[in-house]
Amino acid sequence: MTRVLSVASECAPLVKTGGLADVVGALPLALAAQGVEMRVLLPGYGRVLSAVPEARQVHRFDTLMGGPARLLAVRAGGLSLFVLEAPHLFERGGTIYLDEEGRDWDDNPERFAALSRAGAEICAGRAGDWVPQVAHGHDWQAGLLPYYLSQETAPVPSVMTIHNIAFAGLAPPERMAALGIDARDFRVEGVEYWGRVSTLKAGLVHADRITTVSPTYARELATPAFGMGFDGLIRARRADLTGILNGIDAEVWNPATDRAIRRYRSGRGKARATQALRREMGLPDAAGPLAVVISRLTAQKGLDLLLEALPSYLEAGGQLALLGSGDRAMELAWQEAGARHAGVSVHIGYDDTLSHRMIAGGDAVLVPSRFEPCGLTQLYGLRYGTIPVVARTGGLADTVIDANDAALKARVATGIVHRPDDADALAFALSRMVGLHAQAGTWAAMVKVAMRHPVGWDVSAGQYAALYRDLTPAA
Ligand code: ADP
Ligand code: GLC
Fold it and tell me: What's the 249 CA to ligand 2 centre distance in angstroms?
């Protein structure tokens, strides 16, 4: 067994704000079948600590970023976890990243530097007898992990995964000493990013390998349009970068056993689920398709473009149910659209069980993102026969096959793909969707193909396992 420590700020089902948590929570189980023993290090947020009361101490810090801290170990929900208990950093109100006013916590650099520091201690064998052979950090929150490891005399090799390069993990240079960053590393080849420190950059510079969550996003990252200022660095490290597609948890997202939809099951499962969803969302019966959106409401997701494309879609007979939360202005704009149109139902909030009923009951799931490193809801859609309508970018481009004539004829089409960042292209994609939905036979055939598309972790877990093995030739 190759021992790997995964370090992240979220892990489903304990704490989740987005797809990162799903991936971090699913990887250990998927990798177990590949001869990899992965343990996950997480911050001890209040809700995490209360979920694992039986955790036992494996290491103590007299002081870590301004206060005492302990590393705890515990098994929970099939996962082997390390939890960093540091009340001064992680036990507070707000959300895991934002204060009560919705601003980033001012000490976010220190909070997640502490997490990376704890990871480095585990890797150095100073926290109990389980010592990893590979360290795997996720996003800017774990960016300092490869950096701290690089300061060790015999560091374990490290992997850094980019789930979203839009979050650079910025800190003012004055805080470098407190963060344990050598002032000499404040340069373009080091951790400097437009006059500030980027913890993500620290990870990208110092990790032995870099991965991201789809092959197309791996290519996009090397371009100025998607690289967010890191494209030069990405190009320099191209030989060490691979794109490995995310999978979904096939147990949690399983139309055959889904508890959230069981009460709707019958001989006509999908139609019943759609009817029930219309009722629940207060939408009238209709012959046209019911599209769903489950998303963070941020500029990344392109849902402002969907607002523009909405009138023509509704006029053609389509309906829309949206579940989301995020930017206040976008929440308001969607609430307004919901109030204005009988065919639009908007639920602002975060609701896991409702998201299951929506994927189950929707005819189509829309993901019009401007960029999308991988995306998970289109994969849920494929599994549930809920046809994805997606922008041709990142993981969306890698997982959905457009229903053009040739693909339909060859019976490989699984959805509809449109040009990103273009409201007209989105409107046209929606009109194609309405048209295909009206051809019952064609639609049913496409649903069948979509449901057969592999969306589990098998292949990707094998790719991660191979990567770890590459880094530990002697093991
Ligand atoms: P991202 O990580 O960029 O938000 P992904 O598609 O990778 O995008 O993952 C989003 C995850 O969060 C999915 O599991 C999705 O179902 C879930 N999700 C997003 N918004 C909501 C919401 N408002 N309610 C319930 N689940 C949500
Ligand atoms: C990020 C990306 C999303 C991806 C998720 C998990 O949040 O925005 O596309 O699926 O990470 O890797």
Answer: 15
Report the atom number in ligand 1 closest to the C-alpha of 378.
6
| Index of the ligand 1 atom closest to the CA of residue 380 | 16
- The reported pTM is 0.96
Q: Which atom of ligand 1 is nearest to the CA of 163?
A: 2
Cα(401) to centroid of ligand 1, in Å?
Answer: 22
Predicted confidence (pLDDT) per residue in 242-293, tens digit = 999 999 998 899 998 887 666 555 446 888 899 999 999 999 999 999 999 9
What is the whole-number distance in angstroms between the Cα of residue 352 and the centre of ligand 1?
9
- Nearest atom within ligand 2 for CA of residue 217: 9
Q: Ligand 2: which residues within 6 Å by Cβ?
A: 18-20, 23, 163-164, 213, 246, 372-376, 395
User: What are 441-450's pLDDT values in tens digits?
Assistant: 999 999 999 9
Ligand 2: atom nearest CA of 22 is: 6
Distance from the alpha carbon of residue 192 to the mean position of ligand 2, in angstroms: 25
Nearest C-alpha to atom 1 of ligand 2 is from which residue? Answer: 163
Q: What is the 3-state secondary structure (H, E, C) of the chain?
A: CEEEEEECCCECCCECCCHHHHHHHHHHHHHHCCCEEEEEEEECCHHHHHHCCCCEEEEEECCCCCCCEEEEEEEECCEEEEEEECHHHHCCCCCCCECCCCCECCCHHHHHHHHHHHHHHHHCCCCCCCCCCEEEEECHHHCHHHHHHHCCCCCCCEEEEECCCCCCCEECHHHHHHHCCCHHHCCCCCCEECCEEEHHHHHHHHCCEEEECCHHHHHHHCCHHHHCCCHHHHHHCHHHEEECCCCCCCCCCCCCCCHHHHHHCCCCHHHHHHHHHHHHHCCCCCCCCEEEEEEEECHHHCHHHHHHHHHHHHHCCCEEEEEEEECHHHHHHHHHHHHHCCCEEEEECCCHHHHHHHHHHCCEEEECCCCCCCCCHHHHHHHHCCEEEEECCHHHHHHCCECCHHHHHCCCCCEEEECCCCHHHHHHHHHHHHHHHHCHHHHHHHHHHHHHCCCCCHHHHHHHHHHHHHHCCCC
Q: For residue 77, name the pLDDT band (cuts at 50, 70, 90).
A: confident
Residue 219 has pLDDT above 50, yes or no: yes
223 Cα: distance to centroid of ligand 1 (angstroms): 26
Higher pLDDT: 49 or 271? It is 49
**Which domains, from first to last, does the chain contain?**
2-247+458-471 (3.40.50.2000), 259-452 (3.40.50.2000)
User: In this predicted model, what pLDDT tens digit does every residue of 303-341 receive, in sequence order?
Assistant: 999 999 999 999 999 999 999 999 999 999 999 999 999
Closest CA to ligand 1's atom 18: 295
Q: Which residues does ligand 1 sit against, CB inside 6 Å?
A: 18-20, 22, 294-296, 323-325, 350-352, 355, 374-377
pLDDT tens-digit map of 130-178: 999 999 999 999 999 999 999 999 899 999 999 999 999 999 999 999 9
